[in-house]
Design goal:
By secondary structure, this protein is α+β, with helices and mostly antiparallel strands. It is globular, with a radius of gyration of 17 Å. The chain starts with a helix and ends in a 6-residue tail after the last strand.
């Protein structure tokens, strides 16, 4: 019985690693419209968004007049992922605004 439980746990861990790795591959699904509209919600932290997307955002540092405590990040897809991008504005560490353009409808 102990071997069966260990085997099942190993399969679950391997499956989770494969899913995360697939999201991070250049040919993986990238950022989808479903992620943007349904999964990423206002009030989430940057770390929560990274868990959903499987990748870190790129900080936007060349924005003048951004209030203190506000950070902007972008995520983009390459052509193999269907193109498109999203931008999230974090205020005091939480998603406050969302914008996207051209994200694919696939999951």
């Amino acid at each position: 019985m102990k071997r069966i439980v260990t085997a099942i746990a190993s399969v679950v861990v391997i499956a989770a690693v494969v899913v995360v790795a697939y999201k991070q591959l250049p040919g993986g699904p990238g950022i989808t419209r479903n992620m943007f509209e349904e999964q990423i919600q206002e009030g989430m932290t940057y770390e929560e968004v990274v868990r959903i997307t499987g990748t870190k955002g790129t900080p936007v540092t060349d924005r003048p007049n951004v209030p203190e405590g506000t950070e902007l990040y972008t995520w983009g897809n390459d052509a193999r992922q269907g193109g498109g991008w999203m931008r999230l504005t974090f205020k005091d560490g939480k998603v406050a605004e969302k914008a996207q353009n051209g994200l694919p409808n696939t999951d």
